[in-house]
Structures are given as C-alpha cells and as structure tokens.
Amino acid sequence: MPTIDPPHSTAPLATGRLLRRRHHRLVSPGQVGFGLINYALFGLFALLCAYPFYYLIINSLSANDLSALGQVRLWPQGLHWDNYAEIFQLRGLSLAAVVSVLRTVIGTAATVLASAFLGFMFTQEKMWHRKLWYRLMIFTMYFNAGLIPMFITMKNLHLTNSFWVYILPAIVQPFNIILVKTYIESMPASLQEAAEVDGASTLQIFFRVILPNTTPILATVAIFSAVGQWNSFQDTLIYITDQKLYSLQYILYTYINQASSLAEAAQQAGGNLASVASAATKQTATSVRMTVAVVVVAPIIFVYPIFQRFFVKGIMLGAVKG
C-alpha cells in the first residue's frame, strides 16, 4: 500500500518558493538603480551639510597665515593646537562655562516643564477662560515692548546682575506651548477619561498620564530651549555687569571683538593682509572666529544625535494642527 506524505512536509518548501518569488518580484533592477541614486543624492546632500563644520575645524587647526588667506579648503595645513590652547587660557573661561551649562540645564528643564503643563492646561475645557488666556499668549508672539522697557522691567524685578535673568524670562515660550498643545490634542481622549474615572486629579493626570506619553514633543522643546540657552549672549550683554555671571558665549564674543580690533590695527600698520598674516605668530581674526565657532557648536553637535529620533517625530506630530 503506497504511503502518503503528511501535508506539512511540503508546506515549508512551497512557502519558501512563494517568498522567494515575491522577493524577486519586489526587487527589480530599476528599483535597485533608483535606490542607488537615492543613496548617492542623500549622501552628497549630507556631505554638503557637514562641510561647513569640517571647514571650521580644519581652519582652526591649520596654520593661521594660510587660514587668513583662505588657502585651507579640503584638509588641514600646518597642523597645530595653539588656537585652542589660547582660548582655553582665557581668564574666567571655566567659570563662564559653568554658568552656561547651569543656565542651559536649569533653563531647559524649566521651559520643558512649563511648556508641558501650559500646553496640557490649554487642552482642558474646564480651565477658566481658557481661550482668552490662549489668545493672550499668542498675542505675545507678534508684539513686544522693546529693549528699554524690558530692561526697566528686569531692573524693577531685581533680576539684573542675577543668574535668574537667564532663566525666568525664557520659561514661557508660546511656540513651544503650541507644539505641546497640538501634540496632546492628537492623543486619544480615552487616556484622560480613564484616569478621571479612576478618580485622578488634574495634576495626577498631568504627571502620570500626559508626561510619560509626550516624550517626543518634549524632546523637541528641550532641543529648542537648550540651543537657545547655550548660544545666547545678548542677555549677558544687556543685563549683567558682574564678571562672575558672564556666560561662555559672552566671553568668546568679547574675545572675537578684541582679536578683530587687533587684527585691523595691525593691518593698518603693516599694509596688506598677506604681511599681517605672515607676521602673526599665533592668532588672526579668522583663526579666532573659526576656533570660537567650533567651541560653541561642538556641544550641540554631540547632544543633538541623542534627541534626533524624538525630534523628528515630535516636530511632525506637533505641527499637524493648531
């Protein structure tokens, strides 16, 4: 009597052949070529975006006379570290770096928390005059009192020559609040309704339900706030006269101005740029600008990739509707 193979013995083979057919059908030579072109174009675009940073780095590490003459374009020439050594020896640089790190960390945390809470409250129907307060907040995006009234306000609040002048005026940012509000509105309403049925208060809903589910948009707000805090120097220029509260960017800003003034004076005394650059033994205005730009941008470049995956998702979902 002939034996009959069980049905399951040929099923894996048939499934494998079917998958291989589908695989060969999906990946055609045209699609491969299209993929290669895409990779090439995006790779070229990535190189174009990265080249300005690479240009700053190689010019800050190259011979200062060649850098001043614009002869450093693709790779360093006359490699040296004197430019960075000069900057790191600036008086008060370490204290200014501590001030900048503190204002970035504290200011970012305060801004993220305030943006999350206000964005959440503006979605609550039970908030007293919710639409009125929201419109008043939007109004501040288009109109402001100006520099002198702002300075008088900070002085009357005793915030001049105070570390908190870096933090308090930047806590409430209307744009960030709009992003968070829009993101929360895109979340299922059943999350909050379930918490309310369980007897959760408004603060409990915010901290236990909303905050854990808004990580992408909060990471986006954190990037915006951190970059703004780290790069800011005008508030130091306007409100601060105590050297202990100088920020890193303000120290580097004054250093650039001093180096530029010295270079201009040397140029007037010595003639053309070539003679000035060859006579300069350590730094030129160009080398100072390049080195300072690298020092300021480097921390952001290292921090941004950590939040990048949250940033893309948050900025897309937070901008769907207003």
Secondary structure tally, helices: 15
- Structural class call reads mainly alpha
Shape type: flat
Distance between the termini: 76 Å
Any idea of the CATH class? Mainly Alpha
CATH H-level superfamily: MetI-like
Radius of gyration computed on alpha carbons: 29 Å
**Largest sheet at a glance?**
none
> Approximately how much helix is present in the residues?
over 70%
Q: State which percent range the strand residues make up.
A: under 5%
Output the CATH topology. Answer: MetI-like fold
**How many structural units, i.e. domains?**
1
String of helices and strands: HHHHHHHHHHHHHHH
Q: Which residues form runs of ≥5 with pLDDT under 50?
A: 273-281, 318-322
CATH architecture: Orthogonal Bundle
Number of strands: 0
Average of per-residue pLDDT values: 80
Explain the overall architecture.
It is a single chain. This protein has a single domain, classed as MetI-like (MetI-like fold, Orthogonal Bundle), CATH 1.10.3720.10. 70% of the residues lie in helices and 0% in strands. The protein has helices at residues 11-26, 29-61, 64-68, 82-88, 93-121, 130-139, 147-156, 174-185, 189-197, 202-210, 215-231, 234-239, 248-270, 273-279, 285-317. The chain is flat. The N and C termini lie far apart (76 Å).
